[in-house]
Amino acid sequence: MIVAFSISPHVGDDSGGVSEAVAEAVRVVRASGLPCETNAMFTNVEGEWDEVMAVVKQAVDVVAASSSRVGLVLKADIRPGYDGQLSAKVERIEERLAQ
């Protein structure tokens, strides 16, 4: 499965930024060893249901440690029997665009 998620603390820093808390969440994801990527809006992580959801929970917990309220947006592509889709899905689109 692939999960795209975004975590944000309720309160930002003095300038309203949330990058410090988001960086802590991304650090958790990258330390998990699961295939992942981060873009301007989401972090994508690929793996089995239990391992991916455990990483999302850990990421939420690390943000919650510095904020009394946390927002989480999560989208999942659940396709049993497939792995390596984090890059394969993009490759299929690029192939179509090249036609």
Commentary on this structure:
It contains 3 helices and 4 strands, in the order βαββαβα. The protein is α+β, with helices and mostly antiparallel strands. The chain has one domain (2-98): Alpha-Beta Plaits (2-Layer Sandwich). α1 packs antiparallel against α2 (49-64). The radius of gyration is 15 Å and the shape is globular. The two termini are 28 Å apart.
- Terminal Cα span: 28 Å
Biggest β-sheet: strands ordered side by side in the sheet: 2-3-1-4
Largest sheet, described in full? 4 strands, antiparallel
Helix-strand pattern, N to C? EHEEHEH
Average pLDDT metric: 93
Helix content: 40-55%
Q: How many domains in all?
A: 1
Q: What is the CATH architecture term? A: 2-Layer Sandwich
Structural class computed from helices and strand pairing: alpha+beta
Question: Any idea what the radius of gyration is?
Answer: 15 Å
Percentage of residues in DSSP E strands:
15-25%
| Poorly predicted tracts of residues | none
The CATH class assignment is: Alpha Beta
Our count of helices gives: 3
How many DSSP-defined strands? Answer: 4
CATH fold-level topology? Alpha-Beta Plaits
What characteristic shape results from the CA principal axes?
A: globular
